Amino acid sequence: xSLANIKKKARQKAPRLVLFGGSGVGKTSFAxxxxxxxxxLCEDGLGKIEVDHFPLALSFEDVLKNLQSLIDNDNDxxxxxVDSLDWLEPLIWDKACQDNNWxxxxxxxxxxxxxxxxxxxxxxxLLNELREKGFTIMQIAHNQIKRFESPEIEAYDxxxxxxxxxxxxxxxxxxxxxxxxxxxxxxxxxxxxxxxxSSKAVQGERQIYTEERPAYLAxxxxxxxxxxxxxxxIVRGExxx
Length: 241
What we know:
The protein has helices at residues 27-32, 60-72, 85-100, 111-132, 165-174, 232-239, and strands at residues 16-21, 37-41, 79-83, 136-148, 156-161, 177-191, 197-209, 219-220, 227-229. The chain is of the alpha/beta class.
């Protein structure tokens, strides 16, 4: 290869994001505030939010067709929102079972989850094509608390993506950022009837956590502050710095 072909600086591409957290924290509202979003629905979770969206996907084929339509047809959308990953996963499992004549994804003694990665990669490949067209990718997921086995210290519980571990690892590797959404927790001093002080946990404003901690999974490739307000304009502004 000629040295003339060496690129000194990579072209900045649109970000691939994952936002996960508990039910009701506002993940869908956050995604709806992004630039010209189109929602690919795997669950009926829009509620009263008015935003452009595909009909509810009832199969993995529906998901692929919706993604392909955005790739093949000119449109004014700038953000694809997948809502949500943990409702997409059963559609992928159903597809794997249909293609392999399994009664359940667990029938082949754990090999089903490895086979399902083939379909996850097909999905991710289409996301990458959309990104090449300039789409920001936002994937929403719920959280689960799981035991994390660390080789350095004793195992502990933490918030993770509500996906099978193999799928979660693929999605995390593919994404530029994985944001954990949660309420800020604090304590206040309260007096009981005898006048004695004690600490009480209180729930504060919503926040975005961008760096992994023992309590939760997170990552970012933009050198973001570890904690940001639950506001896309602020988060995006930090990413553009």
